[in-house]
Each structure stands twice: as structure tokens, then as C-alpha cells.
Amino acid sequence: MTKGEQLYEGKAKKVFATDDPEKLIVDYKDDATAFNGLKKGTIRGKGVINNRMSNALMRMLESKGVPTHFIEELSERETLVKKVSIVPLEVIIRNISAGSFAKHYGVEEGIVFDAPTIEFSYKNDALGDPLLNEYHALALKLATKEEIETIKKYSFMVNEVLKEFWLSCGVTLVDFKLEFGRLSDGTIVLADEISPDTCRLWDSKTGEKLDKDRFRRDLGGVEDAYQEIMGRLEKHIGG
Ligand code: ADP
Ligand code: UDP
Asked: Is the whole model's pTM more than 0.85, yes or no?
């Protein structure tokens, strides 16, 4: 597979064309941003960890019936994926109150919900990714009703699979963000990444944060937390 021209450089990854118009190469960087790009930094080794973790989790999800963009890990930081047209919705699933949920609704972090919640935001950096509901998404023609139903179904499936997997690693899956896309035939698949950048992961015993909140909140030990969570995954994967 030949790496072609760079099509896009985002906050965490670069995207390259390949000699196959239906395939792309994503290249994971160590760059970290938070608060809509206001806070910038580097997390050494993050790109390698996020690439490997996202691929391992996507393989697991495929085996449980969630279609994903994953094709093949090419190197430490590079992965071959199916090219999609991204549905401009960030889908957030929450099992426990944290982050913007705690802030918006004036509750503490750590409240365990009886059932997971789902919310959407409009993936639009210029607007600051505003929250919207399904009716807004339909009005803005961001996705069809059927696509939204498929996205919701897959998102809750992802939650069940990942919640159980992380629990077996001694980690509580608090919340996470997913992105979906359309293949050229319109099929909806899970795209982008699943990593400590896009999930809140707490040590089940101590509550220690093992995710990007360490960077967002200047908690220190950022690189160590990424290494720790990757180590836990590798110890439990497949077993
Ligand atoms: P951002 O654009 O938010 O800064 P990244 O740095 O992670 O994010 O850039 C990766 C970009 O690639 C994102 O815009 C993401 O939506 C997009 N993307 C992820 N997977 C695919 C895919 N399979 N096909 C096309 N685009 C993708
Ligand atoms: N998230 C993400 N990208 C975003 C916004 C949120 O990956 O642009 C993830 C975040 O890491 C967390 C979950 O989605 O796991 C919920 O984030 P929240 O809405 O609480 O926002 P935050 O507190 O990160 O601003």
C-alpha cells in the first residue's frame, strides 16, 4: 500500500490518501489539545498508544458485530482504514457523571447511572461542537433517521462490549465519544479512534484517572497514565 498525499492534518492525526480511492492511512501524532484547541501540548508516546489501542478495540468490536473502518495496522503510528464520509455528529455515551455532564447539570462526578445516556454534538470546530438532538440533526440534514437509529444501536453495542472488557482490566468506562462514517455504498461504520483521548477510564479500585483528563486538568503523570492503560489492555486482550 503506497502512502499518497496528505489530505488533512487534524489535532491528533494526519490523514493520507493511498493508491486505492476507498482506503486511507491515518497517522497518529503525540499532539494533544483540549478546550476546543485552546490548550495545546504534547503527550510523548501517545500516538503509538492510541493507534495500537484503537486498533485492538476496533478488532474486538468487529468480532462482536460492530462494523468499523479498521483494515490493517501498518506501523507503530499508521493504520490503513476504509475511507468514509464522516457523519458530522460526535456521539457521546455516558455510564457515570463526569466532565461537561457534571458541569451542565450541576452534579458531582462519579454518579453511576441506572442506564447509559447518549447525546450528540455537531462536529464543527468553528461553532465549538454544540450539543444537538436528533430533530436538530435531521433538520440540518446531518444524517437520515435510519442512519441515526443505526448509529445509536452501534453506540450502545460499543458501550456494552467496552464496559465489560475494561472491567476485566480493572478499569471503569465512564464515558466516551464515537464518530461514524458512510462507506461509498452508504453503509454506516464506526470510524476515527477509541483511545484515552476519547474515553474517560478510571481505575476501578482507586478511581485514578487513566485518560486525557490528566492533561486537561494538569494532574501530572500524563504519559504514565497512557502507558498504564495500554499495559492493562495488552495484559487482557484476547484472554
Ligand atoms: P480533528 O479533525 O478533530 O482535529 P483528528 O486529528 O483525529 O481530529 O483528525 C482525524 C480526522 O479524520 C477527523 O476529522 C476524523 O473525523 C477523520 N476520520 C477518521 N476516520 C476516518 C475515515 N475512516 N475516513 C475519513 N475520515 C476519517
Ligand atoms: N470527547 C472527545 N472529543 C470531544 C469531546 C469529548 O473525545 O471533542 C470525549 C471525552 O474524552 C469524554 C467524553 O467524550 O470521554 C465526554 O466528554 P464531555 O462531554 O464530558 O466533555 P469534556 O469534559 O471533555 O469537555
From this structure: yes
